[in-house]
Amino acid sequence: MSEKPTNSSYPVTDFRNLTSPIIDVRSPSEFYQGHWPGAVNIPLFSDSERETIGKSYKKENRLKAILQGLKVTIPNAKNLLEIILQITTKKEGKNKSLRIYCWRGGMRSSSFAWLARTIGIRTYLLKGGYKNYRKWVLNQFEADLPIRLLGGKTGTRKTDLLNYINEENIHVIDLEGIANHRGSSFGSLGMKEQPSTQQFENILAESLDSFQKNSAKEIWLEAESSNLGKCRIPNSLYTKMKKAPILEIIKDKDERVKNLVNVYSQNSQTELNNAVNRISKRLGPQRTKEALTAIKRKEWSKACESMLDYYDKCYEYELKKTTNINSINLSGLSLKSSLNKILNEKLNPL
Question: What is the distance between the alpha carbons of residues 149 and 35, in angstroms, rounded to a whole number?
Answer without folding.
Answer: 28
